[in-house]
Amino acid sequence: MHEHDKRFVEKWERQRKDGRWLYGLKYGPLFGSIVFVIINVWQLKDHSLEDVFLSTPALNQYVSMLLGGILGYSLIAWVMNEKTYEKIMEREKANK
Question: Could you tell me the pTM of the whole model?
Fold first, then answer.
């Protein structure tokens, strides 16, 4: 097994023990927060910092981004990581 694959397998085996939802709660909000900041930085050229990041519409958008990160990104990432893990393990099984 390549070193990169070995590190991925070790890390993924630790992460998947906690389950899909805990994985989502751990990594989804980070993704949602990053997307929120990136999207809204462009708005600063036309609006104030308070309007862009501290208003009620901004809070609603932020909550939506967090939920999107939890329910969207992290669950898609989970499935992709599972498929990668399975491919690595199948390849290792075939090489033995």
Answer: 0.74
d(CA 77, CA 61) in angstroms, rounded, equals 22
By C-alpha distance, which of 42, 41, 37 is closest to 65? 37
pLDDT, tens digit, for every residue of 78-87? Answer: 999 999 999 9
DSSP-assigned letter for residue 51: H
Residues in the chain: 96
